[in-house]
User: Fold this.
Amino acid sequence: MFDSLQSVIKKVESEGASFVDARYDELLIRTMIKENGRITNLKTMKRAGVGFNVYHNGASGYAFSADLSQAAMENAAQNALGIAKASAPVVLIKSEYETLSPQKSLDLKPDIREKPWEADTSDRLDIINRMETTAKDVYQDKIASLMLLYGELSGTKIFTNSEGTEIKWNPHVVDVRTMVAGKTPAGDLVRAMDGTGGSVGLEYYKLEGNTPEDIATNSAKNAKELLEAKAAPAGEFSALTENSLSGVLAHESFGHLTEGDFIATKTSPIHDRIGEQLGSEHVSMIDEGIMPTSNKVAPFYLPYDDEGVKTDKVTLLDKGVLKGFLNSRATAPHTDGVPSGNARAINYTFGPIPRMRNTYITPGDLTEEEAIEEMGTGIYAIGTSGGQVTLDGTFLFKAIRGYWIENGEKKYPIKDVTLTGNILNLLKEIKGTTKDFELKSGYFGGCGKGGQYPLPVGNGGPKVLFNKIRFGGEM
Amino acid sequence: MSSNKVQFDGLHDELRSIIDRGLKYAKERYPEFQHEIYAINTRSLNISIQAGMVNAVQGGQVGIGVRSVKNKKLGFTSASGILDENVNFAVDNAVILSKTIPDFDDRWPGFIDHPGTGKDGVLEDDVLEYTAEQAVNAANGIFQEAKGYDERIISVSGNATISYGGFALGNSEGLMKSSRYTAGGGTAQISAKEGDKTKNGSDYRMGRGVPDFTGVGIQGAKEAVTLLDSEPFGRTGEMKLVFDNIAAGQTVATGLANSINGKSVVEGRTIWADKIADQVGIEGLYIYDDGQIPEDPNMQAVDGEGFPRAKTPIIENGVLKSFLFDNYYANAHGSENTGHANRGGQQSYEALPNIGSSTITLNPGNKSKEQLAEEIGEGVLVTGSLTGMGHSNLISGDFSVVSPSSFRIENGEIGKPIDSITIAGNLYKSFNQIIGIGNETDLTFMGKIPSIAYEGFTVSG
Assistant:
């Protein structure tokens, strides 16, 4: 494939391209979903294709093809050159970047023992069925809706460019989840979910806390508890966010503001604030491509980005001070940064854009008990069903559940917990973080940007204690 | 005639012959199975200009999705590309998956053999002939318009996009259907800044042809600049609100996304499951799902299983009339298929048919937004997209969203913009909390839904 791609690169270079990136992806995705006793989704998806990012006179164009014949590949690259030429007259921020020395790395894969893509369908079914049995046992009463999910992505990605870089690596992610919905006596439905995933092997699901039984038990117990939960009160309260929610806050509300395209185009409110104290001294935040796996840490493995740049560790916040941005090769010169290995594309039908990898808040020194005690009275918010952020830093997040805390004690469970505010104000409210650290990635869910969803990313952190957060919800 | 036009005119035949050959392969090799082959071939060109950075992408969705069934056990496999080898790969693997399922699914109704077809929407040749230069100029026109509007504008994104193509599907019941489309659109997204305050504005055009993009940049810029004058609302509590057609469209569409979905009905995930013929909204409320609006870029002749698209009554005079079904869940529920099998956003070849609405329409009233404001007297006018609506609890219906662009209503007049407010309520109760319906009849990206006045939502500002 390298030879075919190089021959296309040479061809469009001779037709006026100043620089060419070429990618070949071959991904195999398998999903299995069982809902209320029936397998409703049993899928295999194969995505294979090439994409060319072609530069001309400071402009770039991206075109792709699922047809892998030499003629079709050339045609795609020529289309990319055509749109780059058409764009060149209107480009103000030019994509002209520093030359990098060619990289060659052809055997990159996550450290996995029991390879999910070599498993039998019956092994996947076994995971699903064990979750189903456990969820029913633990919940005892009639579950209004029970959904068990297994997802897996594996394959090969190849990258080469005009500099002669050659990268070949194997992306991989597996994901296992349980969703339990219960019905309250008043007829309202409540929902809890649990699960974990990352660039891990099936051995990960044998570790304590990660087994299908553990996942299903958590979901069922939490759904049961939600039946009794009160709606979260609205207003400003002290708050503690549980690890996965802290991770999503880091990713969604702050991480996106550090992405190089939003910086270069001055769309981000922090584009000119490098070196400034944005948060309290208790918050540090990292984004990186490779990190070690442990039983509560399941990152996504990303050794190189989709521009052939090695994934460096980027410190976004250091004790509250803004230190860095997430760059592609094109955005780096416009952000006074370096290409950090953050240019990612979800598959061959998209060009790479600045994205996060594994983003997390670093742990501190509190225990959970100390954090709750220090909070005094407020909301302990747990889990998340997602959130949304606008580029001025305004955010809204949904926690799945939580507890109302009074004088350092859990008083009663709460549901429909909505956190809102502006991240730049919120970062200043951080009072401390706990020692325990968790990070997950996965196939279901993931990050969405520019139509590219779901891109596997890891989010994580400790529990984070805030002076105050604004909570929405019923009054 | 251009080569694009020739290719587009021949698309039905191209896709149908690929499916014919695939079905022949499938029947010969796996005669004991039933098969359905779905093929899609589209072209798209997308130019985005953000602060002078250009993102230009050309390509298209090309692929195959195969469902194979034996003894009511269904496997699905998709493959990118529509070459014979892609089709064969998908057939072989769908069969493999089907064989691994331990339990048969008693609800499986078989593939459809419905002979009818709906209509295709308007097909516009200008989309087929649109060049990269034209798209760049259109995006740049939107960009320049917005950029020059006001010195407080700090960031502008202009986008122009066209796409065209079609899909076809055939199955072992002898069904063979196809549908084509052409579409064009443009968007402007603008940020304006004054002091520490940053505000966003946006506008768009969409259609089956290449729309006139004039004014898109200016409208988006105007919105962002207007919001810079916002002040704290300073009120918290239950109050009356007027949602413009985008905010109302988003609220209505989100409120229906799960509640009328036939799958959620059958799986027990909607509190409307047993509410057919019940009053779920105010009298005078008429809501439809219309898959046959000719100027709608979403319009297709048939759904993702080959069933004709149509107009389905959902709520008439406040009474719940129908859920949305595909073939599987219609059978499971004992109802008629309504032709709502979608295969993802653009009928992706990777998606299994899944129930989704086409285009939600709500019969307009006879009052303008301003008149609705006059009627409620005191409250808030909520405009544009609501942040966080997509994360509403679709099971309970509870929502809590942030409106970044709202205006105070005082003494019946729409006044100054206000800082972001939080609005909370319940989507399913909201149909009974309508106190006025606006008179807009435009098709937006949220459907054909006018502005709506609500009571009973809680505002925190």
About this structure: Chain A touches chain B through 86 residues (CB under 8 Å). Chain A has two domains: 2-227, 230-471. Chain A has a mean pLDDT of 93. The longest strand of chain A covers residues 38-56.
